[in-house]
Amino acid sequence: MIAQQLINGLTLGVLYALLALGYTLIFGTLSFINFAHGEVSLLGAYLAWFAIARMGFAVIPACIFGIIITSVVGVIIERVGYKPIRTAPKLAMITVSVGFSYIVQTAIQLIFGTQPHEFKVISVASWNFAGITINSIHILVLIVSIILMVSLQLFIHYTKSGRSIRAISMDQDTAGLMGINVNATISLTFAIGSALGAVSSILMGMYYAQVYPMMGTSIGNKAFAAAVLGGSGSIPGAMLGGIMMGLIESIAGTVLNTQVREGVAFVVMILILIFKPSGILGKEVVKD
Amino acid sequence: MALLEAQHINMFFGGLKALNDVSLQAEEGKISALIGPNGAGKTTLFNVMTGFLVPTAGKVLFRGEEVQGLPAYKYVEKGLSRTFQNIRLLQEMTVLENVQLGCHHNMKQNLFDELFISPRCRREENESRESSMEALEFVGLGDLAGEKAKNLPYGHQRKLEIARTLATGAEMLLFDEPCAGMNTAEKAQLSELILDINKKLKKTVMLIEHDMRFVMKLSDTITVLAQGEWLAAGSPEEIQANPKVIEAYLGTKRKAVGYHVGD
């Protein structure tokens, strides 16, 4: 039982982690929580569903289509909504992001309808090992997520763009004076964050075999909590936080009962933050 | 010919006139200095000339082309790079990474090169590492490349900033108080380094410095500012003999100990 929940929890956890990476990347570069990230990411799943169900795309092209458009939408929202108020108090940006979360959610309902859509896009095979059921979606989610997380770490540390992202997250002005195009780098951060979010929502749609308009908010909130739990701005922190949220949720669902599973995950988050407010891997930074 | 030129710069902050109709020229291949008592507007002028501030009025010309108002990163592309009075390094990055940032504007790779680790991506990354190491070795920090910037002692951090300007490939380097906080031996070493940068690497240098011995030894030409206004310009000998300059310094000498004109 527990072993089964570990598999389920880990699968859910890496999906939260992928989404949490978007929150943490954007927090790292602009120091604000982008509350629209969950909804924007959900666009990825809806677009993939739409491409398959209504436009007759094959699965992989449909997913790529969803990821690219979501990425573009993320960048456009940054340019239109956040860039003009980048130097304003952070509360303004946070509020604008809450606004965008409702706008995107409403747009999803208008365009794709308020009813859940079935999202069964791959044939699911499952295997039994000593009472543990593993299906092809577990495997797909784990492989894709792990590849993306490792690639992101390599990208951030060993490429020019990655170095630029780290530089502007430390000191935008200095990075600019060193010849780094700050606006382009921020756009890139939004593009990467939104693309990872889109992948997460597509895989989440496959995992639950459906997409529904409130999905962005519900998984977005957990991923946001995971990012803070792991340490805002820390990439390994977001990964760790996401996986912890998924595991706690699944195990609490079995050991206690399914009604309290989400509550327990947040109780653990609050307890950790009380003892380590900067998050598990967050730096103890006192901002002036 | 003047490589960098400021023409009739006004820089007002609200009612404060930080710079009032200031002009200066930096000749190609020379070392020029900007001096003046505290609050004269030297750093403000540096900020205007490197894109950190947009002047209220006036023009900044680089190779005869107007550059004021461009975003800061464009100045590096044009060939202008600087260091800071209060050191600005990316503290959590390694020494090498800090220098590599200076190379970024020369790297043509795009996101797809990076995602698919294309040959161009690998080549440029290697080139940037090599040229960054060269710059580090030039300033004498070659063996500290892997260290985090925040772990370097103060004098080394100043040199690291200089290495970063070298790695940009810029032909004009502006150093804002490069030897602030250094002892006599370190200053002597630094003045050798700046002379090497000028003579061996053929860079045009402009610097702000309070240490008059340092300025007089290095500079080909000196511009003096006082209270936001242009006061004088000329060779070190001319400046030392200029009564207006002496007066400006003597007038503030009691408040700001440590200025020795012609010392």
Produce a short descriptive summary:
The complex is a heterodimer of chains A (288) and B (263). Chain A has 288 residues and is mostly helical.
Describe this structure in words.
The complex is a heterodimer of chains A (288) and B (263). With 288 residues, chain A is mainly alpha-helical. Chain A is 74% helix and 4% strand. Chain A has helices at 2-30, 37-53, 59-82, 90-112, 136-158, 160-170, 172-177, 182-208, 215-230, 235-255, 261-275; strands spanning 117-118, 126-129, 132-135, 210-211. In chain A, the strands form two sheets. Chain A has a two-stranded antiparallel ribbon with strand order 1-4. A two-stranded antiparallel ribbon of chain A has the order 2-3. Chain A starts with a helix and ends in a 13-residue tail after the last helix. Chain B is an alpha/beta fold and 263 residues long. Chain B has two domains: 1-79 and 170-263, 3-Layer(aba) Sandwich (Rossmann fold); 90-169, no CATH class. Helices cover 40% and strands 24% of the residues of chain B. Chain B contains ten helices and ten strands. Chain B has helices at 42-49, 72-78, 95-103, 111-115, 119-139, 154-167, 184-199, 212-218, 236-241, 243-253; strands spanning 2-13, 16-27, 31-35, 57-62, 65-66, 80-82, 172-176, 204-208, 221-226, 229-234. Chain B has a six-stranded mixed β-sheet, with helices on both faces. In chain B, strands 2-1-4-5 form a four-stranded antiparallel β-sheet, covered by helices on one side. In chain B, helix 3 runs parallel beside helix 6 (154-167). The relative contact order of chain B is 0.17. Residues 253-258 of chain B have low confidence and may be disordered. Chain A: The chain crosses the membrane at residues 12-35, 47-77, 89-112, 132-156, 177-203, 223-248, 260-281. Chain A: It is a multi-pass membrane protein. Chain A: It is found in: Cell membrane. Chain A: Belongs to the binding-protein-dependent transport system permease family. LivHM subfamily. Chain A: GO terms for molecular function: L-isoleucine transmembrane transporter activity; L-leucine transmembrane transporter activity; L-phenylalanine transmembrane transporter activity; L-valine transmembrane transporter activity.
